[in-house]
Specification:
Helix content: 25-40%
Strand content: 15-25%
Distance between the termini: 29 Å
Number of domains: 3
CATH class of the largest domain: Alpha Beta
Largest sheet: 8 strands, parallel, barrel
Number of helices: 19
CATH superfamily of the largest domain: Phosphatidylinositol (PI) phosphodiesterase
CATH topology of the largest domain: TIM Barrel
CATH architecture of the largest domain: Alpha-Beta Barrel
Structural class: alpha/beta
Strand order of the largest sheet: 1-2-4-5-6-7-8-9
Shape: globular
């Protein structure tokens, strides 16, 4: 922990070369605080609350073929020296030092599903025989099938046999070997079908070109253990995808400081979402948010990028004089000689018969066959707003319907499947926004950037909803740097480092 202190001078020297994409994997969960312990549901919940991008967990097969989470082989606080030689009932009877029980993989998955954006690096522990390892792989994959977990999982192991078995049993799975000794060539990783490689720092220190080559080949790179400024600096310089840390909160703060200093030097175009970022949903912009924009505009170009139309955003901002990209890039407005002026209004034809039929199927399947008003709002631009309660719901019903978006997130995969080729966003309080292909906030910003001479590394996006299906999600998924706002009243605090 001492290495995290007194680093700012070093950051100022090194920061201009550092990329922003390195993510944090919380090693065995977030257990570096009182009341927690590694590989428990408590440490998982702690990592979820902390908001790290990934978490590492270790899975064993018990003597009676059940899946449990433990670093092992010894069970801490007990006399048992090998979890793989115990039956499931015995393992579950053990109380860990923090009072938790050893979790089953099923219990762990159930908790992990509450944060779909969290990537689980599921380490398959080595077992005494190839047959036991194959059974481990089979049972883990069967549970992934049952609980629909593949989108959240990268399989990792020190055992190449286990990595290979995962790919044999489930081609296309993300399988990554862990190495504390062996150096893998990029060709070997690609030929085996691995999706990346996880190295101990001491293993790769004299072979840095291989780490860079793996990343450049599109392979995922992981570095462990990373608990100091020196290694965080190293990982970010070499564009490592994930660092595995036992001190995720300290690492989170450290890497945020590195990014912030880098962004202040490199960013030129700052793009803001409106609802939930600068304002409460559909309410007027406050003087405090206006002051944030005024301050930033002294140093950067600042624009608005919204899901609503330009005129609505302009009015909601109390006619603040700013460039607006509206309807996910289908519209663009400028202030010309002090006057709000539409400079582009793209339109796409809507196949209403197809939409009405498809929306009816979705309503029936998910229990929204009754609604008020029309089934959807068809905008002149070609965007469609699919309100689950209809176009004219009661205000009270609207506000209480899905405040945490759980209902719509559960429905999102079916809507995406039904409207392939379109962009689907969870919008407003009860709806999905459906836009033609190519119209999303990432493409809107990049179109504007190309027209005004900005490169991707000069752009920073400030928004509130980067989760899958969120109207800012394409920003995250396609690699644009961003700041997530949890409370619009504190946006000034979040961006003050840019002043």
């Amino acid at each position: 922990m001492k290495r995290f202190v007194s680093i700012l001078a070093a950051l100022l020297v090194a920061v201009s070369l550092l990329p922003a994409q390195t993510k944090i994997m919380s090693h065995r969960g977030y257990y570096a605080h009182p009341g927690s312990f590694e590989n428990t549901l408590t440490s998982l919940a702690g990592a979820q609350k902390l908001g790290v991008e990934g978490i590492e967990l270790d899975v064993h097969l018990t003597a009676d073929d059940s899946l449990v989470i433990l670093h092992g082989p010894k069970i801490a606080g007990t006399s048992y020296s090998d979890v793989q030689k115990l039956d499931y009932a015995t393992v579950k009877s053990c109380v860990l030092p923090n009072g938790d029980r050893v979790p089953s993989l099923r219990e762990y998955f159930a908790q992990a599903k509450k944060t779909p954006a969290l990537m689980l690096f599921l380490e398959l522990k080595a077992h005494p025989t190839p047959e036991r390892e194959t059974l481990l792989a089979e049972k883990v994959l069967a549970l992934c099938d049952e609980m629909n977990m593949y989108d959240q999982i990268t399989f990792i192991s020190f055992s190449e046999h286990l990595c290979d078995e995962i790919l044999r049993l489930h081609p296309g799975a993300l399988s990554v070997p862990i190495s504390a000794k062996k150096i893998y060539s990029t060709a070997e990783l690609l030929n085996k079908g691995y999706s990346g490689v996880s190295y101990n720092y001491n293993t790769i220190i004299n072979n840095l070109s291989l780490l860079d080559e793996a990343h450049d080949a599109g392979l995922q790179t992981v570095l462990w253990p990373v608990n100091s400024y020196d290694l965080a600096d190293f990982a970010m310089r070499h564009k490592v995808d994930y660092v595995s840390s036992d001190e995720p909160q300290a690492m989170q703060n450290l890497m945020s400081a590195i990014r912030e200093l880098n962004w202040k030097q490199s960013k030129k175009l700052i793009c803001f979402d409106l609802d939930g970022t600068l304002t409460q949903h559909r309410t007027s912009m406050t003087p405090e948010s206006k002051a944030v924009l005024d301050t930033l505009r002294q140093r950067y170009e600042v624009i608005m990028v919204g899901g609503g139309n330009c005129r609505r955003i302009y009015k909601q901002m109390n006619e603040y004089p700013i460039t607006i990209l509206g309807n996910y890039g289908m519209e663009e407005s400028h202030i010309v000689d002090g006057v709000f002026t539409m400079v582009r209004e793209d339109k796409a034809e809507i196949d209403r018969k197809f939409f009405d039929k498809t929306l009816a199927i979705l309503r029936k399947k998910h229990g929204y066959a009754s609604y008020k008003g029309e089934t959807a709002e068809y905008h002149e631009s070609g965007m469609v707003t699919f309100g689950l309660l209809g176009t004219k719901p009661d205000q009270a019903d609207k506000l209480s319907f899905d405040p945490d978006k759980v209902k719509r997130r559960a429905m999102l995969p079916d809507v995406q499947e039904a409207f392939k080729g379109y962009n689907i966003f969870i919008g407003g309080t009860t709806s999905f926004d459906i836009t033609p292909g190519g119209y999303n906030k990432y493409d809107a910003v990049m179109k504007y950037a190309s027209e005004h001479g900005y490169t991707l590394d000069q752009i920073l996006f400030v928004g509130d909803d980067f989760t899958d299906g969120g109207n800012d999600s394409q920003i995250r998924l396609r690699g644009m740097d961003y700041i997530r706002i949890d409370d619009y009243t504190r946006v000034g605090e979040k961006v003050r480092f840019l002043y």
